[in-house]
Amino acid sequence: MARAKFSTSSEAVNTIFYEAIPLFAQSGFNGVSMRHVATAVGISIATLYHHFPDKQTLYLRCIEEAFANKAGGLSEVLTKQSSPEEQLKHFIYRFTCLMAEDDNFRRLFQRELLDGDETRLQVLAKDVFQIQFKGITDLAQTLAPQCDSHMMAISMAGLVLFHLETTPIRQFLPGGRAEHNDPEFIAEHVTKLLLNGVMKCGND
Amino acid sequence: MARAKFSTSSEAVNTIFYEAIPLFAQSGFNGVSMRHVATAVGISIATLYHHFPDKQTLYLRCIEEAFANKAGGLSEVLTKQSSPEEQLKHFIYRFTCLMAEDDNFRRLFQRELLDGDETRLQVLAKDVFQIQFKGITDLAQTLAPQCDSHMMAISMAGLVLFHLETTPIRQFLPGGRAEHNDPEFIAEHVTKLLLNGVMKCGND
DNA sequence: GTCTATATACCGATAGAC
DNA sequence: GTCTATCGGTATATAGAC
Question: Are A24 and A110 in contact (CB under 8 A)?
Fold first, then answer.
């Protein structure tokens, strides 16, 4: 019998999450084998199966773990500021930084949009995003009462996320520069665009 | 010897593309086996390998094929209209319809953003998107000369694509309604947002 | 809690006949 | 151009010892 690497089960499980989440975020469900995960953790496949009944369950628990850790940070983003414009500016800046600093979360989310079945997306929407998304629609409602706040909330999040999502290819597209990947630069561009529209975007 | 299903090699190859592209778009490179493709086409694995040397090459040729078919459609989108506002409105509408009607193309693009290595993204940018993207930056330059046209072009495309990308989860988020998935509805929302900004988005 | 060993299935890829 | 048969490797998952 090999010496126990972890003294408690939850210690082992946490280490498995720590190693597996970046792997799944990087290569996706089908791109990561139980062997990969076990090797990364430094345990055998059998031990991995001792902690999780199957690969599907391991993956889902990783998703839950990665998203649960993020829900708290998203809540802080929507604190009240003086004016609606300040609220928007503050939200975009914090949201951009939060998404930029955690590629794992962002990539897992993108992968779920592509591969998640209806049940999984429903759980994700209800249990992880609902409260935060409601906060964004409320902000949109304050800023533009005459507008569809659901569409506006999607637009606000999408502007930020698409800039981050396209980071690896933008350097090869006309006009792409390194500073375009700076969260502060992205946040400033998105805020100006949202506040003024495309025609007056360069003005302050 | 089995009777020949296809009379020419290119006929077989085209049928392989026709079956393989939706499979790769749906499940990704690692989610589709050569067996799956061969079965979908109605040929054996060995026959598939007669037409493509390996799986990697098949996948890359599928990407090229799917994207080549789209490049033409994107060119038409940037025809000159009377005013810059009309140009923008026309571009957003055509771009939205084009992306909405071809899930395969859009999903393959999203997957490449997640999984494509630097070489593949460079080829994609230079050979597929460069000309079209240059057209969008030119439009952005016309609309907002004082603005970073690269950032603005990304924002314009991102607004449309993120609405399409989040279609499967939006129905579970607060305020989500079926008509939010209508390309015309999306195009109208995005156009208004770009032209007026968030504060005046509901006005015409 | 961890291991070795193994069952079973599928993977990508090839050989060689027709 | 297409097939059957097969190779070597890896996948998920389990059995059973310690």
Answer: no
What tens digit of pLDDT does each residue of A71-101 get? 777 777 777 767 889 999 999 999 999 999 9
Kindly determine whether residue B166 and residue A156, on different chains, have CB atoms separated by under 8 Å: no
pTM (whole model) above 0.90:
yes
- A132: three-class secondary structure by DSSP: helix
Structure letter (DSSP) for residue B174: T
Q: Which nucleotides of C are covered by protein (CB under 7 A)?
A: 1-6, 10-18
Interface of B with A in 34-53 (CB under 8 A): none
Instruction: Work out the average pLDDT over A145-171.
Output: 97
Q: What pLDDT digit, counting tens, does each position of B46-64 carry?
A: 999 999 999 999 999 999 9
- Greatest Cα pair distance in chain B: 70
Helix (H, G, I), strand (E, B) or coil at A118: helix
Looking at residue B198, the DSSP 8-state letter turns out to be: S
Considering chain A, what is the average pLDDT of its residues?
Answer: 93
Residue numbers of A between 81 and 110 with CB closer than 8 Å to B: 88, 107, 110
Q: How far is A180 from chain B (nearest CA, A)?
A: 7
The DSSP element (H or E) to which A5 belongs, if any, is none
C-beta separation of B165 from A161 below 8 A: no
Instruction: Give the range with max mean pLDDT: A40-49, A70-79, B77-86.
Output: A40-49
Q: Residue B23's closest CA among B103, B127, B137?
A: B103
Q: Is the dihedral of CA A120, A126, A131, A136 positive or negative?
A: positive
